[in-house]
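Postdoc handover notes: sequence design on the structure in folder B. Input C-alpha coordinates:
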Protein backbone atom coordinates (compact mmCIF):
# COMPACT_ATOMS: atom_id res chain seq x y z
CA UNK A 1 0.00 0.00 0.00
CA UNK A 2 1.35 3.42 -0.96
CA UNK A 3 0.42 6.88 0.21
CA UNK A 4 1.70 9.67 -2.04
CA UNK A 5 1.59 13.14 -0.48
CA UNK A 6 1.75 14.66 -4.02
CA UNK A 7 4.72 16.81 -2.98
CA UNK A 8 7.58 14.44 -3.79
CA UNK A 9 7.23 12.33 -0.63
CA UNK A 10 5.70 8.85 -0.40
CA UNK A 11 5.15 6.19 2.27
CA UNK A 12 4.76 2.49 1.44
CA UNK A 13 3.96 -0.72 3.30
CA UNK A 14 4.59 -4.02 1.54
CA UNK A 15 3.96 -7.50 2.87
CA UNK A 16 4.41 -11.10 1.80
CA UNK A 17 4.59 -14.60 3.12
CA UNK A 18 8.13 -16.03 3.47
CA UNK A 19 9.61 -19.31 4.59
CA UNK A 20 13.07 -19.47 6.17
CA UNK A 21 14.79 -19.91 9.52
CA UNK A 22 16.70 -16.98 11.03
CA UNK A 23 20.08 -17.34 12.74
CA UNK A 24 18.35 -18.44 15.98
CA UNK A 25 16.45 -21.20 14.18
CA UNK A 26 13.07 -19.43 14.38
CA UNK A 27 10.70 -19.74 11.41
CA UNK A 28 9.91 -16.55 9.55
CA UNK A 29 6.48 -16.64 7.93
CA UNK A 30 5.63 -12.99 7.23
CA UNK A 31 7.76 -10.16 5.84
CA UNK A 32 6.60 -6.57 6.29
CA UNK A 33 8.61 -3.79 4.63
CA UNK A 34 8.18 -0.12 5.54
CA UNK A 35 9.37 2.55 3.09
CA UNK A 36 9.74 6.32 3.17
CA UNK A 37 10.95 8.03 0.00
CA UNK A 38 11.45 11.35 -1.70
CA UNK A 39 11.36 11.53 -5.49
CA UNK A 40 11.09 13.85 -8.48
CA UNK A 41 9.03 11.84 -10.95
CA UNK A 42 11.05 9.26 -12.86
CA UNK A 43 14.60 10.67 -12.55
CA UNK A 44 15.74 10.03 -8.97
CA UNK A 45 14.58 8.72 -5.63
CA UNK A 46 16.12 8.58 -2.16
CA UNK A 47 14.67 6.60 0.68
CA UNK A 48 14.73 4.37 3.73
CA UNK A 49 13.50 0.75 4.00
CA UNK A 50 12.94 -1.32 7.14
CA UNK A 51 12.58 -5.07 6.51
CA UNK A 52 10.65 -6.73 9.34
CA UNK A 53 10.23 -10.52 9.74
CA UNK A 54 7.56 -11.50 12.25
CA UNK A 55 8.67 -14.32 14.60
CA UNK A 56 12.27 -14.05 13.31
CA UNK A 57 13.35 -10.58 14.41
CA UNK A 58 17.09 -11.29 14.23
CA UNK A 59 16.65 -11.31 10.44
CA UNK A 60 15.31 -7.72 10.46
CA UNK A 61 17.45 -5.10 8.75
CA UNK A 62 17.38 -1.52 7.45
CA UNK A 63 18.90 0.34 4.55
CA UNK A 64 18.93 3.73 2.89
CA UNK A 65 19.11 4.07 -0.86
CA UNK A 66 19.50 6.42 -3.80
CA UNK A 67 18.14 5.53 -7.21
CA UNK A 68 18.43 7.15 -10.64
CA UNK A 69 16.83 6.24 -13.94
CA UNK A 70 17.03 7.44 -17.53
CA UNK A 71 15.44 6.07 -20.71
CA UNK A 72 14.52 2.73 -19.14
CA UNK A 73 17.84 2.13 -17.37
CA UNK A 74 17.94 2.21 -13.57
CA UNK A 75 20.73 2.18 -11.00
CA UNK A 76 20.11 1.88 -7.26
CA UNK A 77 22.68 1.84 -4.46
CA UNK A 78 21.46 0.52 -1.10
CA UNK A 79 23.55 1.20 2.01
CA UNK A 80 22.95 -1.27 4.85
CA UNK A 81 22.49 0.14 8.36
CA UNK A 82 24.08 -1.45 11.46
CA UNK A 83 26.03 -4.14 9.63
CA UNK A 84 23.48 -4.99 6.92
CA UNK A 85 25.10 -5.69 3.55
CA UNK A 86 25.23 -3.00 0.88
CA UNK A 87 23.48 -3.74 -2.41
CA UNK A 88 23.89 -2.49 -5.97
CA UNK A 89 20.97 -3.03 -8.36
CA UNK A 90 20.86 -2.45 -12.12
CA UNK A 91 17.59 -2.59 -14.06
CA UNK A 92 16.17 -2.09 -17.52
CA UNK A 93 12.51 -1.50 -18.28
CA UNK A 94 10.87 -1.66 -21.70
CA UNK A 95 7.45 -2.22 -23.18
CA UNK A 96 7.01 -5.25 -25.44
CA UNK A 97 3.63 -5.69 -27.15
CA UNK A 98 1.92 -3.58 -24.44
CA UNK A 99 3.53 -5.66 -21.67
CA UNK A 100 5.79 -3.82 -19.24
CA UNK A 101 9.01 -5.86 -19.04
CA UNK A 102 11.66 -5.34 -16.36
CA UNK A 103 15.08 -7.01 -16.12
CA UNK A 104 17.00 -6.74 -12.83
CA UNK A 105 20.46 -7.73 -11.59
CA UNK A 106 21.39 -7.14 -7.96
CA UNK A 107 24.46 -7.82 -5.85
CA UNK A 108 24.40 -7.78 -2.04
CA UNK A 109 28.03 -7.27 -1.03
CA UNK A 110 29.51 -10.47 0.48
CA UNK A 111 26.13 -12.19 0.40
CA UNK A 112 23.72 -12.78 -2.50
CA UNK A 113 23.36 -12.03 -6.16
CA UNK A 114 19.88 -11.97 -7.66
CA UNK A 115 18.21 -11.73 -11.05
CA UNK A 116 14.61 -11.21 -12.12
CA UNK A 117 12.44 -10.85 -15.18
CA UNK A 118 9.00 -9.33 -14.62
CA UNK A 119 6.12 -9.08 -17.09
CA UNK A 120 3.30 -6.74 -16.07
CA UNK A 121 0.07 -5.49 -17.60
CA UNK A 122 -2.91 -3.47 -16.41
CA UNK A 123 -6.31 -4.76 -17.46
CA UNK A 124 -9.25 -2.68 -16.40
CA UNK A 125 -8.64 -1.47 -12.85
CA UNK A 126 -6.27 -4.32 -11.93
CA UNK A 127 -2.51 -4.65 -12.35
CA UNK A 128 -1.17 -8.16 -13.07
CA UNK A 129 2.47 -9.26 -12.89
CA UNK A 130 4.43 -12.47 -13.12
CA UNK A 131 8.11 -12.55 -12.19
CA UNK A 132 10.84 -15.17 -12.43
CA UNK A 133 13.48 -14.67 -9.73
CA UNK A 134 16.83 -16.32 -9.09
CA UNK A 135 18.79 -15.93 -5.85
CA UNK A 136 22.44 -17.01 -5.74
CA UNK A 137 23.77 -16.97 -2.17
CA UNK A 138 27.54 -17.10 -1.68
CA UNK A 139 27.07 -20.60 -0.19
CA UNK A 140 26.10 -21.85 -3.66
CA UNK A 141 22.56 -23.08 -2.90
CA UNK A 142 20.70 -21.10 -5.54
CA UNK A 143 16.92 -20.75 -5.60
CA UNK A 144 14.54 -20.09 -8.50
CA UNK A 145 10.97 -19.04 -7.89
CA UNK A 146 8.02 -17.45 -9.68
CA UNK A 147 5.75 -14.80 -8.17
CA UNK A 148 2.31 -13.89 -9.52
CA UNK A 149 0.63 -10.77 -8.20
CA UNK A 150 -2.59 -8.82 -8.66
CA UNK A 151 -2.84 -5.23 -7.48
CA UNK A 152 -5.27 -2.32 -7.53
CA UNK A 153 -4.56 1.37 -7.19
CA UNK A 154 -7.00 3.51 -5.27
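Designed sequence:
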Amino acid sequence: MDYDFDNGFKLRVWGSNVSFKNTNGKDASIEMDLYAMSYNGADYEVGYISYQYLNATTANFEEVYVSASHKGFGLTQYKGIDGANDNLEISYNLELSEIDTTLVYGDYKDSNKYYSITLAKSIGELDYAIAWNKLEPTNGNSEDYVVFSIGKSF
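Context for whoever picks this up: The mean pLDDT is 92. Don't rerun without checking with the PI first.
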